[in-house]
Amino acid sequence: MQNVDIVQWVAFIVLSVLTLGGGFMVARDRNLFHGALWLLVSLFGVAGLFVLLAAPFLAAVQVLVYMGAIVILIIFAIMLTRRVMGEREQTNNQWPIGLAMSALAFLVIAFILWQATVSTSAGVRPLLPSAPGGAVSIDSIVTFGKSLVDPGQYALPFELASLLLTGAMIGAIVIAREEG
Amino acid sequence: MVPLLAYLLVAAALFCIGVYTVLARRNAVAILMGVELMLNAVNINLVAFWRFLTPINETASGLKTSMAGQAFAAFVFVVAAAEVAVGLALILSMYRNRQTVVAEDVDSLKY
Fold first, then answer.
1. Residues 25-64 of A with CB under 8 A from B
2. Averaged over A161-177, what is the pLDDT?
3. CATH classification code of A1-86
4. ipTM of this complex > 0.90?
């Protein structure tokens, strides 16, 4: 039992470092192409966190859709628009305010989370649990797939999502097309 | 077991990195990458809450887990894909018409 705990913590810390380090480098790398590759690192860390959270299907989708499709699309856009940026300054002149604001936001969120986790008075259950509610069954992917096409659950949003994707694809083609 | 707080803190940090990227970077593609980071932070939050807070209902056919959190995360994936497709098309169009990918150079709606 103890060993499982240690393995989970090690995996969590490694994946968090990948996620946050990749994100950090996305935020500050001057070379946009390298930034896109760091985005891959960050997304891989998030996929690993999904595995730790017992959501293997979402981890697979993360690798396929985010790392496979979205990052490739971003790299395409970078290469198509590359030469205009050159070695110009990558951050605007408001970046100190942005940095201060996002750091402040993080501190506020962390404080609130801390307040919600630690029970202030004895006997009062904290708002956020530290252990999962229960074990996830092995066939959770089957349950997930069924709930996506169950009319009583998510069939309508599922169909709407496909409609949204179609609309976005048509819109993207119309916007990006050369004026003929 | 890694507590819920740890996941939420990582997600919050990732979100704030994304916010900073959106606020500070000049290149429109970099701004889109910041939005992607923020969406990923939201996904971590959704899945973590699903894992830790979803009650497991006992139904006639045995134990059944509600899949709300995972379903929401899947829809966030869809919206992210749509968003990045349209966003990059806009950037390409902007590049073609104005020869720039710097967000603050595209300000004709401002005046």
1. 26-27, 32, 35-36, 39, 42-43, 46, 49-50, 52-55, 57-58, 61-62
2. 91
3. 1.20.120.1200
4. no
